[in-house]
Amino acid sequence: MDQPGLNIHDDLIARCRTGDRDAHYRLYKLYSKAMFNVGYRITKSEEDAEDVLQEAFISAFRNLDNYRGDATFGAWLKRIVVNKAINALNKRKHELIPDVEQWDVAEEDSVTEYREDLTVERVKKAIEKLPDGYRTVLSLYLLEGYDHQEIGEIMGISESTSKSQLNRAKARLKEILDV
Amino acid sequence: MKDHLDDFIGKNRASFDDREPSDKVWKNIEASMNFGSRGWWNSVILWRAAAVVFMALSIYLMIPRQVPKPEDLSASEFNDVEAFYFQEISEKVELIDGFQRNEGLNGFTQDFKQLEAMYEILKEEMKARPSQKVKDALVLNLLVRINLLNQQLSKLDKEDGEKSDDEV
After folding, report:
1. Whose CB among A16, A74, A156, A164 lies 3.0–4.6 Å from A105's, allowing a Cys bridge?
2. pTM of the predicted model, to two decimals?
3. At what angle do helices B132-166 and A73-92 cross, to 10 degrees?
């Protein structure tokens, strides 16, 4: 998902399994920044994102024997980070998707035009202004590369709810960007 | 709805990962992992290697050589030792079965089954040509099995804790 090739870090992972501290550090340096940003986008808190990053790496390192290489190490680790970030978010809020918002929203066929040109900084700030549920679905879909079925599994919602939440999130994002 | 936003984010994906975690995250991970104190005694790999060496040693012991003269083997003493270790092993096996009831054969199970089979062969050898060496090999087999079980139990215990953490 976020690293080319499936087993490019096989040697490093094998060294980690023997308890090699340096190999653990190298693996951490390779993935920590990307994973920290994954956690931040969901929790919207640097403090929570650091806790998530720490717990996720400890969990991954202790369970390296369970990593079978079916997915890239990055994809495996990212799933741990996402789960822990959503747990952290759920601890702060009671529910990520309010019941009243679980209705389907028709997909828009027309191409969405934005009043001003998009910049990374503007889009990032606008995403941060989204409510937790919208922000999480939009980040998982557009930035982390999960499909709606995977988002449904991760967040415990249906595939159609994930789709409608994404549509709502995009509509809200457009409102924020066009202000 | 594939729109301008999807394309924009796709083209600029790397720029969205601009935040850096502080150094304390690695320090905390390092402290939790306890890299320095991971002793050889706690290494699953080493214990599995020990099991393999032990099996090779058992095979060597069973290669027929000259029949040893009967030694003074205290049969009742050995039976006591065997009963004690059998009890420990069966308790640990029950615990492990409880953990991994739905999982198939893994490396640990295969090692363990081989050690069990080797034990039966050594017992036959003990009956046919009793010697101190075979008796030692039998006790060692039991000890290696107990250590494998201990390693597996602590691993499963840890995984069980992690699993409940990871579930959303």
Report:
1. A164
2. 0.60
3. 50
